[in-house]
Amino acid sequence: MRYHRHLLPVLVLVLALALLGISTSGPLARLSDAPPLAIATWRLGFSLIIVAVPLIWTRGWRQWRDLHSKDIAIAITAGAFLAVHFWSWIASIGMTTVAASVLLVNLHPVVMIAGSALWLGEKPTMRQILGTVVGLGGAAVVALGSGTGTGTVEGKGTELLGNALAVLGAITVALYYLSARRLRAKLDVWPYVTLVYGSCFVILLALSAAMGVQLAPQPARELGIFAAIALGPMLLGHTGFNWALKHVSAPTVSLVLLGEPVGAGLIAFALPAIAEVPSMRTVVGGAVILAGIVIATVSRRRS
Question: Which value, in Å, is the radius of gyration of the alpha carbons in the chain?
Fold first, then answer.
């Protein structure tokens, strides 16, 4: 994909800001004292406010008129997978290291390849199979214990549960992408995300009510964290990457996205309130995971 040379500085800046945006999600969630369901619900609430602006501006809501009952069912299903993804991943951050959680949840590309083969009957290429095996091998290294340094049986059990929840987050976000494929083909980005985010928000509200999680009132500090979680990954991150896709290839964006675990780990290390040092197991396993994702996703576009 070609682009004008004068766009290069802008592209570098946008991609850097987008990477910074998505890298803040994990550390910000760790700083919050609210229950995971509350964090997820408020994040989706603020995100809906953000996406409502371009939806109304472009009148994208008019595309909803052409949807059928099956499309609405797909939106609800996708929203349910996304709700479980947000809950499980945010919950994992409180039980394991930020680096391990972000690395494991970023397994979703290789999970999507496996899901496409099993669910949609799409035959994977040899590169995809190799990348999936490599990525899952790296995940096993990280998930067996990222070394939080507790040294206790209780601490290790909590850490393993946190790693498992992060893997659940990867599986459910992959299922979200797979289930919403048809819906995305029928809708532009703003009516699509508003519909799915809206379904996700309603499901999170219902889950919070069923589990007795108090959503409001929240301290000003917590509201600030919730808003930052929505603004960073949503406004800077996803919007920036979507803009960049018009000017650079998808593999280029995929490579930049692989920087999220690195960025999240560095932020978690630099913030005094977290000051988290990734273990050697996390570093080695993380490198294997990233290599597997590169093999499975970026290289396959060239085959």
Answer: 19
- What is the rounded CA–CA span in Å between residue 111 and residue 176? 11
* 237-245 long-range contacts, CB within 8 A, separation 24+: 237/18, 237/19, 237/21, 237/22, 237/25, 238/18, 238/21, 238/22, 239/18, 240/14, 240/15, 240/17, 240/18, 240/21, 241/15, 241/18, 242/189, 243/14, 244/11, 244/14, 244/15, 244/18
Give the torsion through C-alpha atoms of 223, 227, 228, 231, to 10 deg: 180
Provide CB contacts within 8 A for 150, sequence distance 6+. 156, 158, 159
**In a 10 Å sphere around its CB, with 0-12 CB exposed, 13-18 middle and 19+ buried, how is residue 17 labelled?**
middle
Question: Residue ranges of the alpha helices (H) in 94-211?
Answer: 98-105, 108-119, 126-143, 153-179, 181-186, 189-210
Are 105 and 228 within 8 A, CB to CB?
Answer: no
Contact 36, 87 (CB under 8 A): yes
C-alpha to C-alpha distance for 35 and 291, rounded to whole angstroms: 33
pTM of this prediction? 0.80
In the structure encoding, which two tokens stand for residue 155, read together? 């601490």
- For residues 96-113, give the mean pLDDT: 80
What is the percent of the chain with per-residue pLDDT over 90, rounded to a whole number? 19
In tens, the pLDDT along 236-275 reads 887 777 677 667 665 566 667 777 787 888 888 888 888 8
Token pair belonging to 208:
């919070």
- Structural domains of the chain, count: 1
Domain range for 39 is: 5-302
Averaged pLDDT, 71-80: 90
